[in-house]
Structures are given as structure tokens and as C-alpha cells.
Amino acid sequence: MEKVDIKRLARELNLSISTVSRALRDSHEISDSTKKKVFELARQLNYQPNPHASSLREQRTKTIALIIPEVANNFFSLVIDGIESIAAEKGFHVLIYLTHEKTEKEVEFVRQLSNGRVDGILMSVSGLGQSITHLEDLMQKNIPLVFFDRTPDELDVPKIITDDRDSSFRATEHLIQCGCKKIVHVSILRQMSISDKRKQGYLDAINKHGLPEMVLDCSIDEEETYQLIKTCIREQKPDALFASLERLAIAAYYVCGELGLNIPGDLKVLSFSNLQTASLLNPPLTTVTQSAFDMGAAATKQLFRLIKGQEIDERTITIRADLIRRKSTSCD
Amino acid sequence: MEKVDIKRLARELNLSISTVSRALRDSHEISDSTKKKVFELARQLNYQPNPHASSLREQRTKTIALIIPEVANNFFSLVIDGIESIAAEKGFHVLIYLTHEKTEKEVEFVRQLSNGRVDGILMSVSGLGQSITHLEDLMQKNIPLVFFDRTPDELDVPKIITDDRDSSFRATEHLIQCGCKKIVHVSILRQMSISDKRKQGYLDAINKHGLPEMVLDCSIDEEETYQLIKTCIREQKPDALFASLERLAIAAYYVCGELGLNIPGDLKVLSFSNLQTASLLNPPLTTVTQSAFDMGAAATKQLFRLIKGQEIDERTITIRADLIRRKSTSCD
DNA sequence: TGTTTCTACGAAAACGTTTCCGTAAAAAAA
DNA sequence: TTTTTTTACGGAAACGTTTTCGTAGAAACA
After folding, report:
1. Are A191 and A260 members of one domain?
2. Cβ of B80 and A73 within 8 Å?
């Protein structure tokens, strides 16, 4: 089957390549009659322009890249949904890269993207607190770049974030209103600004009400985390556990199962989470739920503004998270 | 900041473009001394080749496309993980497309990919039973193509599937062994071969044991599905519900909550599902769990074989699903 | 010494587009 | 009628690579 490119169309129609190209792009320089002929043949042969040739010539790719730590995670899945909805609408393609929380991978991906592969990059950084020179390099190259959720504080870049401190504060006050006196905040990845903000919201609420600060920093390792939580619950006997991440709450549920503790009777549990089945858990889990889809959509819209060269008014967009009260923190 | 391309390297080193290109690709035609010089400068200036120029010239892109119905779904999230793990290993890039179960979108994506954008395509089809001419077109163009999970029976293509019939049979027998006599199989998207196979496994087991066939076909609409399940449970009073899809089991859980039915006392529930939190539900849900990560990885490996032009021995790879027994089908 | 074979490199074509520039013929203006 | 403008198109350069082909000079061989 012979290849179908512009050259072929031109040959079959006895036209020049330039004329065919212009006809396809509906240029005013081409007469309606030839346009019609070109369109007709293109349709017949199912002509599709070679995107790499176009990208090379036009110096734009209609493609964006998404770099995230992981995908098997309700938050990021929903974010992808939001991103895709906007990208598809604009006819853009989306490349996806998973760092698995490894900065080296992030550095490598960024390097790969630094020479015209994409028109812009959306990113939720892995392991913050690490070196950010690769991100600075990217900015220097003037590649449109938008961060979401996990953003580097050190850089002045467009970002989409959750009201982490405030929602954490509200969540903590919810626990306090339920009568909890010993609330432990469980967190991970201490280098992440987002964890810090959540912890800060907790601390602010705790201090406002004169309660004791109880903070547990876990590691990345699942098993170690499980043991830490177990020891904490057994020895410190908190009456509420506020998890900064979904997987920490899951671990807490298992620990309670093992220790024979009743939720919410013995321990109230609350977590940042995007679990769709939160209300089906035993017991239904009270969550602080981020609008993940909206964050993805907002980030993408912002990125398109940058790509189009438009000035952006708000460099930081904050999207409110909702506290959804369920049985794991019920008061009776 | 001046652009850094091969031309720039050549100019600064007083070499020709071809020599630089060859040096970068470590050709034996270039002396070690010049190679060293070229590498050094490339490193200094952080040279990255323009991928579109390479793709255009080489007629290969080191990019694959993934077309799936949705991403906010545990199964597909894990599949993506599996795909990415293999792709990253080979230095390939992954484009992601979501059809949201709409065949029109699938057709459009396929059209967009039909002219050299990618080296191959991985796909789980949307709404089977629809027209498949767009897939036939793709095959005619000789674009490497591998299907997984939801595959079109009509086409002779490489595919990765679950042992849907067999695992469904085993699951149904598990319910029967628990003493269930009125087992209803709930399914959706009746045009999907995968649904058919699951239903067939159920029917085979039911008939083998001389029990009544009870089949409920739901629609895509969430609310309608909910009502159908509710009516079915109330009027037909099954003692077990076998859901072909995760979301149907979720709906069943809600229905039972509303009707005040006890799981597993009044109704045992079992479902195909990749929910990570299945064991934390109330009650823990017995699942038939596909090895989603492995399916993604296997599909990608298969695709790479096609891309390399290797003959593939097994055109259909079946990956076994596991029945994980939990409390929702407990016998006591 | 003369001939052949390597070695190491340069010129240029090619990949498939888009667009700048140029120009006949037709139309409009003078 | 002559001049100017417009219309509709063709030629060729350009995007940044890779690779084919060609060739000086060095090395090997006779």
C-alpha cells in the first residue's frame, strides 16, 4: 500500500506540494474549486499529516507531558481525568511519566523533555527538598511549566494547590469538637511542603485549643510505617488519628483490626483521601477530599495560557478541599 | 540563550554536521579523539537531540500510545503502571488517551495515530459490538497493535486476556459450595465479549449444579443501574450476587445498606475487582482479582516484539485471575 | 616506487511538512 | 489602452536529524 502524504496528493491532482498544503489548511490563497478537489482526495485516501514533520517545521507539538509520582492512586487518577478532559478538548496529546517517587527518574524525564518534545509540562514533584536544579534548568529554557499539588516552594512558578493548612485546621477542629483530647497527626515524606502545611494546620488547631502536640513521621517503607503506627497507637493511646495521606489511614485501619480497637469508639480516624469507597469502609472513613479532577483541569488550563503566551493573573490557584464527615469520627 | 543543536556543536568544534552526528552515535568511523571532544561539548551545553527531527528521519518514534476507556479505575491504573514499567525500561514514551467508553472518541484517536505519531498501540476497546472498521484500518496500515482485557473477538490480533470464563466458573462454584441456591449474575455492556465470558462461566457452573439462571443486565447509567439492582434484590430475593464489574458490587453494597440487608447473612456478594481496599470494606469483599500490572507489562512486551518485527509465538496470552475469599461470602 | 586499502571526515540528500518568495494570468484602475 | 493590483499557484528553503556517497590522506602491500 503506497504511502499517503502530501506529495502523493499533489501528484495525483497535478498540483504542487505547496498548493496542496495550503488547500488543506484552508488558505485564502487557494481557489474554492481546488480546495474541494484536495479535500475530496484527502478524505478518500484518509490522509493524515505526519505529526513529526509538522512539529519540526512549526516548532510546536500539540503535546504536553505529565510527570507524577504514581498512578495507582485515586488522587492522581482523577487528576489525569481532569487533565485529559481539557487536553482532548484542545486537540492536545498527553505523555505520561511516572517517577515512583524517585528524583533521579524525575531528573531524567525532565532532561528528555527539554528539547522540543512537548509544548509544556505539568508536574507534581517527587521527593521535595531534594535538588531542584533540573527544574531551574527547565525554567531557564522557557518551557511552559505548571505544578500542582506537590509544588516546590523555592521556585516562583504557576501552581495549583489545595488549601492544605486550612483544610487540615478545619479537620482537626472537627476532631476537637468531637471531644478528642489526644489527636495524633501521622505524616510521611517530611521534606514535602504539602506535608508541612497539613501538619501546620493540625498544630495551629491543637495549639489554639491547648491540646498536646502528637506528631508521627513515617517512612516510605510500608511495613515500617505499619509498625510505627502500631507502636504509636499502643503506647501513646491517642483518641484520634489524623492521617496526612490515604495509605496511612488504611494502615491505621489494619492496625486497629489487629489490636481489636473499635473505630470510632476507641479511636477516631480521619484522613486526606480520594477513596471512592470511603463510605463503604468499615466504618465509613471521614475524609478531607481534594477536588482532584478540578486541580488537573485547572493546571491544564493554566498551562495552555502559558503556551499561548498569555499573561496569567493568578500564579497560584488554591482549590478548596472538602471535609466529608462519616462514621469513623462520629461522636456518639 | 542560543539554541543548542547539532549545527551549534559542529560550528563550535569546527567539524561538519555529519561528523558530530556520527560521533554522538558512537560510530566507528570517527576517531576517539574527536568523539571525546564532541561528547564533552555536548555534555557542557546539555545537548538533547530534537526528537521530532529524529523521528521524521528515522521513521520511528520511541513512543507508544495507550487507549483505554477510563483511568479513575483501579484496574486500568495498575495496567498503566505495568505498561510504564516496561516502556521506561526500554526508553519509550507513552501517550495516553481516554475514550470515556465512547466509540467515536476511540475512532478519532485511532485516526490521529495512524500516521507515524507512534511506533505501536496498546488498547482496551470501548463499547464492543460496535463497528470495528477503524481497527481494521489500523491493522491494514501494519501498525503494531496489541489488545488487552477488552478485546475484539472478530479480529485476529495479539491479545492479553484474563481467564474470564474459568475464573467466573470458579467464583460461582465457590458461592455454590457456600450453599447459595439463587445466585444472580449482574453485568453491564452486554456487547462486550469479556462480559459474555464471565456470564458464560457463571452459566456453566449454574447449569452443572442444576440451579436457576438469574441474569441481570444493567445500563451504563449509574442511577438506573442502582434501581435495577435494588428491584432485583427486593423482588427476586437472591441469596448471592455475583458482580461482573467492581462498580456493580459497590452499588449492591449501597442497596443492601438501604434495604437493611446483611452481607453475607442475607446476601453474599462477590465481584470482579481490583479494589485495594476490598479487605477494609464492610464487610470485606470477596473478589476475583485480575493481575492488572502483569497484564499491562505482558501487553507492552508483546508490543515491543511486534515493533522489533519479531515473530510472536502465542498470539493470545491468558493471565490467571485469583479468587480472594473474604467475609462477604463467608459461610457461617 | 606505485598501487591498493583503510581511516576519518565532509557534502548533500532525505524524512514530510509549512511558508517565504516569486510570478503568470486575470481583474481592476488609470 | 496602459498600468496596477489581485488571484492562484509553483519553486525552494527551512525545521534538525541521519545516512548515503564521495574523497583526501595515511597506511599497507607489492
Report:
1. yes
2. no
The grid cell for B248 is 456493580
Is the per-residue pLDDT at B318 higher than 80? Answer: yes
What are the pLDDT digits (tens) for A117-127? 999 999 999 87
**Are A100 and A184 found together in one domain?**
no
The answer to whether some atom of strand D lies closer than 7 Å to the beta carbon of A25 is: no
**A56 located within any domain:** no
Indicate whether B267 and B296 sit together in one domain: no
In a domain, B55, yes or no: no
> Which of B115, B263, B282 would best serve as a mutation to test chain A binding (most A beta carbons within 10 A)?
B115
Which of A56, A74, A98 is opposite residue B52, by nearest beta carbon?
A56
Nearest to A295 by CA among A66, A135, A72: A66
CB B33 within 7 Å, strand C:
yes
Same domain, A101 and A15: no
Domain count, chain A: 3
Q: Verify whether the Cβ–Cβ distance A46 to B137 is below 8 Å.
A: yes
Residue of A nearest to B105 (CA): A88
What confidence tens digit (pLDDT) does each residue in A65-83 have?
A: 999 999 998 999 999 999 9
Tell me the CB-side half-sphere exposure of residue A46, using CA atoms within 13 A. 16
Over residues A21-40, the mean pLDDT reads: 96
Measured distance CA(A73)–CA(A101) in Å, rounded: 13
Task: Give the list of residues 6+ apart from residue B155 with CB closer than 8 angstroms, or none.
Answer: B132, B135, B136, B139
Domain span at residue A232? 164-290+323-329
Mutant choice from A4, A277, A291, A328 vs B, greatest count of B C-beta within 10 A: A277
Q: A43 and A133 in one domain? A: no
Determine whether the distance from the CB of A220 to the nearest atom of strand D is below 7 Å.
Answer: no
Asked if residue A54 belongs to a domain, the reply is: no
Confidence of residue B129 (pLDDT cuts 50, 70, 90): low
Residue B217 shares a structural domain with residue B188: yes
Is there a domain that residue A80 lies in?
yes
One domain, residues B217 and B241: yes
Statement to judge: residues B199 and B156 lie in one domain: no
pLDDT by residue (tens digit) across B39-85? Answer: 999 999 999 999 999 999 999 999 999 999 999 989 999 999 999 99
Among B residues 230-269, those touching chain A with beta carbons less than 8 Å apart: 250, 253-254
**pLDDT tens digit sequence for B153-173:** 888 999 999 999 999 999 999
